[in-house]
Inverse folding.
């Protein structure tokens, strides 16, 4: 029997992942703007820094706690920072990880 908790992968802080961005629904509860589509589609190699604690809406500037399962990451090629849901993080293959 599969338990729902077994379906959610463990994301390791300090480990390198492939960030495969895709549009998601992330509605601000205050102004109802969907901020999930702002990044577009891209793929980055990144390192996970920490769980995300708070979001600040880009439209109304209201601070709110983040949903569970989001992580702060840094792109390895340009140092750009972002917050990512675990569903967009994939472990790097051993060959790619050794090259970095």
């Amino acid at each position: 029997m599969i338990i729902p908790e077994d379906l959610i992968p463990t994301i390791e802080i300090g480990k390198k992942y492939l960030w495969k961005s895709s549009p998601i629904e992330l509605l601000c509860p205050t102004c109802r703007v969907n901020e999930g589509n702002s990044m577009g589609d891209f793929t980055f190699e990144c390192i996970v820094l920490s769980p995300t604690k708070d979001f600040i809406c880009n439209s109304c500037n209201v601070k709110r706690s983040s949903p569970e399962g989001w992580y702060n990451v840094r792109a390895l090629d340009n140092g750009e920072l972002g917050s990512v849901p675990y569903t967009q993080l994939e472990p790097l293959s051993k060959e790619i990880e050794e090259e970095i």
In short: The chain has one domain: 4-99. The helical segments are 4-7, 94-99. The chain has a mean pLDDT of 82.
